[in-house]
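Researcher: Re-running this chain for the archive, since the previous output was lost when a drive failed. Same request as before.
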Amino acid sequence: MTNKNKNLIIGRKTCNWRPPVSRRKGNFKISGKVGSVNPMFIVLFFAIIAGVLYLYSINGSAVKGYQIKQVEKEIGGLKQENEKLKIREAELNSLYKIEEESESLNMTKPNEIVYIEEKGPVALK
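Model: Regenerated structure tokens:
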């Protein structure tokens, strides 16, 4: 065996080639420069940007959900108030309430009811 080829080991009918020391798995170095920027810095920068955008979208969704809940509560309250007002309207439009109010305003019941019938060209048109 010659001294020129130290990476080639021959023995027992097998040939095992070993890469040079600088390319072995344990000693392999990645040159971490792309131009003048470290690739890890770029990855970290994009990870931070993605995290901020994610938090912004989640926060926006939470705010929208809270606003929807508030509007739903307001709608429920308005529906209840509407039902109460409908009941109050029916009470005020009842004949009993109208008669009661007419007495409190010193109104009297008419004794004679006279219907006016108009027979003229104006009424026929």
